[in-house]
Amino acid sequence: MKxxxxxxxxxxxxxxxxxxxxxxxxxxxxxxLFALDLGPEVVGVSEYCQYPDAAKTKPKIGNFLQPNLETIxxxxxxxxxxxxxxxxxxxxxxxLKLRVEEVDLETIPGILGAIETIGRHTGRTREATALxxxxxxxxxxxxxxxKQRQSVVFLVGRTPQRLEGMIAVGRGSYLDSLxxxxxxxxxxxxxxxxxxxxxxxxxxxxxxxxxFEMGDSVHEGKGGTDYAREVLRVWSTLPALxxxxxxxxxPLNDNLFVVPGPRFVDAAERFFQLLHGSKP
Length: 280
Fold this sequence. Notes:
Layout: H1 3-13, E1 22-24, H2 27-35, E2 42-44, H3 69-74, E3 79-83, H4 89-94, E4 100-103, H5 108-122, H6 125-145, E5 150-157, E6 166-168, H7 174-181, E7 184-186, E8 197-198, H8 200-206, E9 210-213, H9 217-220, H10 224-235, H11 242-245, E10 249-251, H12 264-276
Parallel strand pairs: 1-2, 1-3, 3-4, 5-7, 5-9, 9-10
Antiparallel strand pairs: 5-6, 6-8
C-alpha cells in the first residue's frame, strides 16, 4: 500500500471531537478550561469570571446563584460545567435538554480531580495530566519548605471601617487547606462552622501571629494603596493584638485567594511568603 493511502486510512480511523461549545458557571471552572487551552471553545462564563483576561470578553450567563437559563440555552452549548449549588441548577438545565457536568471544587483533591475529569471530557487528557502533576509537585515542595508553623486568621468579611461583623475561615474550608499547606495554623479551625462569625474577644484570646484580611475588597472592586491603608487604620485601633503590634496584618484584594481552581498553589505560595518572609 502506498504511503499516501496509509496516511489517509490513519486519518479516517482517528477519533474526532465534535465542535465543543462550553459554558462555565463559576470562575474556578473557567480558569481550569483556559488552563487546558480550551479558551476558544468557551462560549459563556459567569459575570464573576475575571481571569484570564480573555475570559472577560466572553458572553455572561449570570452568576452562581442567579444563572440566566435562557441565555445559557441560547448559546447552544455542547456541555455546561457546574459545581454543586443551592439552586438545583443541574436538573433545571437538564430539563432544557442540555448536557450538564457537575464537578467538585470545594477541596484541593476535588480541584485536581476536576482537572482530570474536564480533560477527559474535552479531549485534553494529556494537558490535564501534565497540569495536575505540576500542581502536585509544587504543592509537595511547598509543604516540605515549612520549617516553623505560625498561627493565623483569615477574615473574609467585616463591617466597613469597624472591627465588627467579622467572618473568619473555619475548619474544612478551601482556604483553611491553603493556609495549612503554607504552614499556617488556623486559630479558628476548631469552629464547627466553615465560616464562623467571630468577635474581638475571641481574637484577643487566641492571639494569631498573622492576620489575612480580605473583607469585601474583591466583590466591591476595592484595592490598591487606599484599601490597604484603610485596613491597617482599622486594625490599629486594636494594639492589644500581637499581630497588630508586630505589623503582621496583611490586606489582600486579589481573587487569586478565593477562587478554587488551578491557581490554588499560587495562592498557597503567596501565603507562605507572607508568613515566612521568603519564597518556598
